[in-house]
Amino acid sequence: MPDALLARAVQPLPVALPNLFKRGSPLTLDRDEHLATIEAIHSGLAGLNYISNEQIATAVFLAYHLDKPVLIEGPPGVGKTELAKSVADMLGISCIRLQCYEGLDESKAIYEWKYGKQLLYTQVLKETLGEILDGAKGLTESVAKLHEFGDVFFSEEFLEPRPLMKALKEEAGCVLLIDEVDKSDHEFESLLLEMLSDYQLSIPEIGTIKANPDRKPLVFLTSNNTREISDALKRRCLHLYIPFPDADLESQIVQARVPEVPAELRRQLVTFIQALREMDLKKVPAISETIDWAKALILLHTESLDADLVKQTLNVILKFQEDIESVTGEVQMLTNKALKGS
């Protein structure tokens, strides 16, 4: 982002805004002070030990004020899911999570009918049918009386909302996390398009259910890039890519999440992890593994890395035996490099 644009973006938003930036009318900032500026978002996330950068904070800022979902892509374990949960915690609202998988359909993602209650209703209707049709003469009058009675068989009373519908019906607003959307089918992506563009869902038997215009859900989708996401879905979202962090950012993350780690040990373990990521491994360690390793080293009363200790704890940071075997022969060299800080 150019410096001039960034300088403008970090200024507090005025109450009277063009329609382009309104979330409902009028804009309400009572609980949304944390989203008023990019710097406020950055600070708010840091207060929850989520260390972001300007790109992440800017994406959250724009997503809120432009009413746009955010598609977060990147390797597993870099903090995509944690970002959505941290934003929800920062705003003091619920995080409704939809975990995607192959075969996911509308009955698990949007809504499902309460078939048991519908069957009970049918039984009650049979028992009271005589009272309902009392006085009716002929088929026409009977049908007319039935219409007067009303059709509640397909109504919200018999509807079991799933995550997408729950998010729309949250009057106080929420964060909707659609996690690992790349694991779902292309057909499921089509189900999401109406939600992502208009914050509404069409139920054939009921009609359209819309979000509270002043409290639309803040939507985050995550993808590990296991397959290509459709252009139609991408067009409806802002794009954010979170890569593996550099050494300085990773050190900040470890300091925030595991403050008990001494500064020198933190430098050593981050240097070691950064070197591991340059190797040809089946799965390189993510930030989550770095944090787990830091906790393990503290638990083992470690003050400085040594080759034997690293070998004993490689299973904390490497998840495949073939990776552990390929790294074991390089442990001494990597440990020396970490100790020297080069």
Task: Describe what you observe in this structure.
- This protein has 17 helices and 9 strands.
- The chain has 342 residues and is α/β, with parallel strands linked by helices.
- A hairpin with a 3-residue loop joins strand 6 (200-203) and strand 7.
- Helix 12 packs across helix 17 (331-340).
Offer a concise description of the structure:
By secondary structure, the chain is α/β, with parallel strands linked by helices. The protein has helices at 3-9, 38-46, 54-65, 80-91, 106-109, 115-132, 138-149, 163-169, 186-198, 231-235, 247-257, 263-276, 287-299, 307-312, 314-317, 321-328, 331-340; strands spanning 70-73, 94-99, 111-113, 159-161, 174-179, 200-203, 207-210, 218-223, 238-241. It folds into three domains: 23-100 and 172-241, P-loop containing nucleotide triphosphate hydrolases (Rossmann fold, 3-Layer(aba) Sandwich), CATH 3.40.50.300; 111-158, no CATH class; 247-340.
